[in-house]
Amino acid sequence: MALTTRRRALTTLGAALAGSLALPATSALAGERAHRPRPLWRAHAHNDYAHPRPLLDALDHRFGSVEADIHLVDGQLLVAHDPVDLDPARTLESLYLDPLAARVRAQGGSVYRGHHRPLQLLIDIKTEGASTYLELDRHLRRYRHLFTTYAHGRVHPGPVTAVISGDRAARAPMAAQTTRRAFYDGRLTDLGTAAPASFIPLISDNWTLNFTWQGVGAFPDAERRKLRDIVRTAHARGQRVRFWATPDLPGPARDAVWTELLAAGADHLNTDDLAGLEAFLDARGTA
């Protein structure tokens, strides 16, 4: 009887010790996951290269999309908005492609550790579209495992999805490819056309050319319906929606437009104010 009692006591003690050893590790892992910053997938860093630390500042603010303007100059893809600002040291590779590749290696295969949704890299072509895209395509192919790829009718997600905007002449060489590491940024004129989301995953357009409201006073009912119809039509085809040229000065007008865009289901909010949009989205729990 005493032996049986001792065995039961040892069994109970062993279970208690095992539990005490396992719980801290489990709690630590859960704590790490709980405190891991959640990416703001709807945050788009417009003119990202204008920040003190291109790409890196946007990632520090957890942005899910960044934009780089490129110029083809003597076989190099230089990043700048205007030709006067071109600098041979500021290439697409040095500012974006190489840092993204290094980060993905360090973060276990994704831009944000534990989050496998791709970061969007919107590349705005400022020089002639067809020739610039063909050179860009050669650059992207050097980063074999970094980019989402379209191959023979199927999309294979990667850590980064490149979307090509800017000069519209890029469309023809892209459409002719059976394999590519980039996708096309459509316009509202592409909404509801035969072009599939596997080619045009994003519909972007100028807010001021489509809406009169700039965040002051009430949003006209007709314009609100128009915005929601645009988003609904795009989403039905698996496409995302972004508007540029929305108000971007801190204040009630900007917040009002961003609030309406969120309510309509727009996928990306455009800004040059990284901290401002981060705070706006965090306050609304939209990560």
TrEMBL record:
GO terms for molecular function: phosphoric diester hydrolase activity. PROSITE patterns: TAT. Residues 1-30 form the signal peptide. One of its GO terms (biological process) is lipid metabolic process. Keywords: Signal. It holds the Pfam family GDPD_2. SUPFAM superfamilies: PLC-like phosphodiesterases (SSF51695). This is Altered inheritance of mitochondria protein 6. It comes from Streptomyces fumanus.
